[in-house]
Amino acid sequence: MNKNTVLGWATLIMIIMGILIISLAVYRYDDVAGWGFGAVGIGFFAIAWVFNALKGRV
């Protein structure tokens, strides 16, 4: 596995985790904790976007 493959897998895992955390925020926590989970899920998407942008440049 080269660096681009590792970044691709990291991007995929971060997107899956972001979806899971946001779905936890929507379906499990309907109080203030849900807002925190949603923010963390959006953060996972942002980090996945950075990993995707680094593919081919590292």
Describe this structure as you would to a colleague.
The chain is an all-alpha fold and about 60 residues long. Helices cover about 85% and strands about 0% of the residues. It is built from two helices and no strands. The chain has helices spanning about 5-25, 30-55. Helix 1 packs antiparallel against helix 2 (about 30-55). The mean pLDDT is about 90.
Short synopsis of the structure:
The chain is mainly alpha-helical. The protein is 83% helix and 0% strand. It contains two helices and no strands.
List the helices and strands and how they pair.
Layout: H1 3-27, H2 32-54
Helix pairs in contact: 1-2
Contiguous low-pLDDT stretches (5 residues minimum) are none
Task: Name the helix and strand elements from N-terminus to C-terminus, one letter apiece.
Answer: HH
**What does the main sheet amount to?**
none
Q: Strand share of the residues?
A: under 5%
Number of strands: 0
Distance between the termini: 14 Å
Molecular shape: elongated
Instruction: Give the overall pLDDT as a whole number.
Output: 91
Query: In angstroms, what is the radius of gyration?
Result: 13 Å
Structure annotation, total helices: 2
Helical residue percent band = over 70%
Structural class: mainly alpha
Keywords:
58 residues, mainly alpha, elongated
